[in-house]
Structures are given as structure tokens and as C-alpha cells.
Amino acid sequence: MVVLGPDAELTEQILGCAFRVHAVLGCGFLEKVYENALLHELRKTGLKAEQQRPIQVHYDGSLVGTFFADLLVEGRVIVELKAVKAIEDIHLAQTLNYLKAAALKTALLLNFGTRSLEVKRLLY
Fold first, then answer.
1. When you count CB atoms within 10 A of the terminal residue's CB, does the N or C end of the chain come out lower?
2. What is the CATH number of the domain that holds 68?
3. pTM of the predicted model over 0.90
4. Partners of 73 in the beta sheet?
């Protein structure tokens, strides 16, 4: 798979880790299992990854909420994990909003709930 754009090389590394996790675990576990396994795989690869990283949402100069990114890799790429039948529009909207609130450009939305890992790369 060839990925272009911002954070292309980092995105490729993250996807390599995600495919390894899915190859070993398959589908059927809860999201948290995949999150923990992917965190382990990312760190084993030498990438800096933070789990459940709080990101604040501001409106009109006021803090109006906080969300928690499943994983933040190298401080640049949000990785949002799902373990569902299929990625839906609400999952895409949620991940795009995370990018906007974090003022970042790249996110990966990964669904481990299917026979083949489902991947959506989002740019903001």
C-alpha cells in the first residue's frame, strides 16, 4: 500500500503494526484488547505512542470538553480503534472532530471487528 501526504511514512509504520496485531489476534475481541496490543507493537517498533491521550475542545475561548484519543503516535497521528461490524459515518465524523480539536492533520480509523482489518486514513 502506498500512502501519500503528511505523515505518510509514519502512517505506513502504524499500519504495519496494526496489520501484525490483526494477523495474530483476528477479530472478536473488545476494542481495548486491540488498543493494548497495538500500543505494545508500536512501542516495540520504537515509536512513541500515548494511550488515552486527553485532548481539550475549546469553543469561543472556553474549554467545553475533553476527549481521549485511543492512541497518539509521535505526537502527530491520532489512531482511533473500533471493533465493530463496519465503520460508519459517525465514526468518521468523530475522528475528524478529534483531528480538528487537536489541531493535527492525520488520523487513522482502524476497525479490528472484521475478518480483514478495515482502514480509513483521514486528513484535516
1. N
2. 3.90.320.10
3. yes
4. 49, 77
Domain of residue 50: give its range.
Answer: 8-123
DSSP state of 103: T
Judge whether 27 and 83 are in contact, CB under 8 Å: yes
Q: Are 70 and 79 in contact (CB under 8 A)?
A: yes
Q: How far apart are CA 71 and CA 36, in angstroms?
A: 10
DSSP sequence for 46-82: T--EEEEEEEEEEETTEEEEEEEEEEEETTTEEEEEE
Q: What is the pLDDT of residues 7-42, one digit of tens each?
A: 999 999 999 999 999 999 999 999 999 999 999 999
Q: Give the integer Cα–Cα distance in Å for 117 and 75.
A: 24
